[in-house]
Write a structure and sequence with these properties.
Elements: E1 10-16, E2 22-24, E3 31-33, E4 41-51, E5 58-67, E6 76-80, H1 84-89, H2 91-102, E7 105-112, H3 120-123, E8 127-134, H4 143-152, H5 154-165, E9 171-174, H6 183-233, E10 236-238, E11 244-246, H7 251-254
Antiparallel strand pairs: 1-4, 2-3, 4-5, 6-8, 6-9, 7-8, 10-11
């Protein structure tokens, strides 16, 4: 806005879109992520700029943000004892200091605070700066090399950042969280658990069925034995019509 005074001061805001995943610096218009872990795709954000004049004028535009699901194992976390909104405001200067002291091109992947509430943006005195470095051939610098260089240059980095923030600065290398398991690995684990559960259920069914079989037919054999014994001990037996008849002994037994 070319106007002077309040008419030239702009405030930026999210009009609609994924306000839970993104936020905006109202003074600079810089958009940053709040929580997009495990999400991928293109997000369309409606952004509004408004001046501070008596008759407030506004303008809107759509910003498309593409989140890539791929991840790098060379991302390094730098922990600063500064509020996250302060670090965001000076992120370009922080990047310049890191590039100067490390001697590589540095890209700020994300600025994060442990607290998820919006109020933490100005109340939590610790910010996590996730960075990745590239060499002159535009290749990723291994994370261990970046960590080593950060530790070696820690004193100089802190002194430079103190001038940026106008405050005492502590910069420490943190351990970035482990990358989440890939969908393929998760699917394999789930499938393995299901197969194991199915196998156990099948074995249990077979064992139970065998016990039932033994119990059923073992009991029938026992009943048959009892019936045979009763026939031998009793000289009378019921025929098919229910009448009693004598059991005749074979002739050779009479002899």
């Amino acid at each position: 806005d070319p106007d002077s005074g309040d008419n030239g001061l702009l405030l930026y805001s999210l009009v609609s879109g994924q306000t839970n995943e993104f936020d905006i610096n109202e003074h600079t218009g810089e958009i940053f992520t709040v929580s997009v872990a495990g999400k991928a795709g293109t997000f369309n954000l409606e952004i509004q700029a408004a001046d501070r004049g008596t008759r407030r004028l506004t303008a809107q535009t759509t910003v498309s943000v593409t989140v890539d699901s791929s991840s790098s194992s060379n991302i390094v976390m730098l922990v600063l004892n500064q509020k996250i909104n302060v670090v965001e405001r000076h992120s370009a200067e922080v990047q310049r200091v890191l590039e100067d002291k490390l001697g590589w091109n540095v890209y700020v992947v994300n600025i994060y605070s442990k607290e998820l509430e919006r109020k933490a943006r100005s109340s939590t005195d610790e910010s996590q700066l996730f960075i990745i470095a590239f060499d002159e051939a535009h290749q990723e610098v291994p994370a261990e090399d970046v960590k080593r260089k950060l530790r070696e240059q820690r004193g100089d980095i802190e002194r430079e950042l103190e001038e940026v923030f106008s405050a005492s600065v502590s910069a420490a290398v943190g351990e970035a969280p482990a990358a989440p398991a890939s969908p393929e690995l998760v699917a394999t684990i789930v499938l393995g658990v299901l197969l194991a559960g199915t196998l156990i259920a099948f074995l249990a069914y077979v064992l139970l069925d065998r016990r039932r079989y033994r119990g059923k037919y073992g009991k029938q054999d026992f009943v048959k034995k009892v019936e045979i014994m009763e026939v031998i001990d009793n000289p009378w037996a019921a025929d098919k019509n229910g009448s009693l008849k004598s059991l005749e002994k074979p002739e050779h037994m009479n002899n």
